[in-house]
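Revision sheet: structure tokens.
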Amino acid sequence: MKKTLLSLLFVISLSFISITKAQKIPTLDLFHGAECPHCHKEMKWLPTLQKAYPDLVINKYEVWHSVENQKRMKDRLKELGQSSTAVPTNIIGEDVIVGFNPRGIMAAMEKYYGPPAVAITNEAISDTNNASSQNKDDSELWIIAILALMVIIPATFLVFGKKK
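Predicted:
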């Protein structure tokens, strides 16, 4: 009787270990749009995340052209009590990260799967953000240049345009 009970406990503990280990496989569900520029940035960054979490399973679902994947996204978000109409939408554990947000993705990965096996440098995260802030800086310069021209051109006509 004791041997049977011990054998049963051993089998149950092995099953529990297997289930626990299966839950620890890092997984990212990525819902993206084929023509989305933010999605393309994230896709280029994913190998960096894959280096940090070598066992990472990335499930990619294109939702702009696939009704089936749109339904999958809607159902998955409904399970989590959330909704989203934007891409990329990342689901890690029970966290939903809308938009390409490397810091948010890393925080969720650490929350559910522990620290990365290989550390990602701040530059690897910041470089992706610098591209968008660089575009913002460029657009600010264009706005300033256009406003300056709107002042300079009329002022030039006022000063030099008068006939004597």
